[in-house]
Specification:
Length: about 80
């Protein structure tokens, strides 16, 4: 567990993530992080965009369904 403090940055509030947390998230300066709220009120901080994951799953479903057509078009 890592304790974070909320701080004022200009007119906003924010938290500073320790170097170790940034390394574990494989994030860097200017890269997006996503704060996801769970069903039981928990929050999860992740570098992975859950909406992108859903879009990719749908794309894989479509590619699987039209596999033969895509193979013909690729020639």
């Amino acid at each position: 567990m890592v304790e974070l403090k909320v701080r004022k940055f200009g007119n906003s509030l924010g938290v500073v993530l320790p170097k170790e947390v940034i390394q574990r998230l494989r994030a860097g300066d200017g890269e997006p992080l996503f704060l996801i709220e769970g069903a039981n009120g928990e929050y999860r901080l992740t570098p992975y965009d859950p909406s992108f994951e859903r879009k990719m799953a749908k794309a894989e479903e479509i590619m699987s369904r039209y596999r033969n057509t895509l193979n013909v078009l690729a020639k």
